[in-house]
Amino acid sequence: MINARSETAATKPAFRDALNYRRCLIPADVFYEWARIGEARQPSALKPAMGNRLRSQGLRDQWQDSSGKIVETCSILTTSPIP
Questions:
Q1: Per the CB 3.0–4.6 Å rule, which of 8, 28, 42, 64 could disulfide with 54?
Q2: Residues 14, 18, 19, CA angle at the centre, nearest 5°?
Q3: How many domains does the chain have?
Q4: Which domain holds residue 42?
């Protein structure tokens, strides 16, 4: 799961331990916000000032797949958009 809702992450078994013990920052050059225009959805790119980076709060985790391989994952903590 790529996104975790900040408001409910503590109550979801998939995110509970990571929220308590494995937080991280996720750097990005651009962030896309989606707006609904009629029936369609339109992306808008949000970029920081030149030379800066966005930083999102995230949760990291690792688990073992069926073949025994360790898989490292992360999820971005999200919240409702600010109008």
A1: 28
A2: 100
A3: 1
A4: 3-78
Instruction: Write down the residue that tokens 């050059």 correspond to.
Output: 29
Q: For residues 48-70, b (16+ Cβ closer than 10 Å) or e, as one string?
A: eeeeeeeeeebbeeeeeeeeeee
Give the CATH number, domain containing residue 28: 3.90.1680.10
**What's the pTM value of the predicted model, to 2 decimals?**
0.72
Residue 54, domain member (yes or no)? yes
What is the sign, positive or negative, of the torsion defined by CA atoms of 27, 16, 78, 65? positive
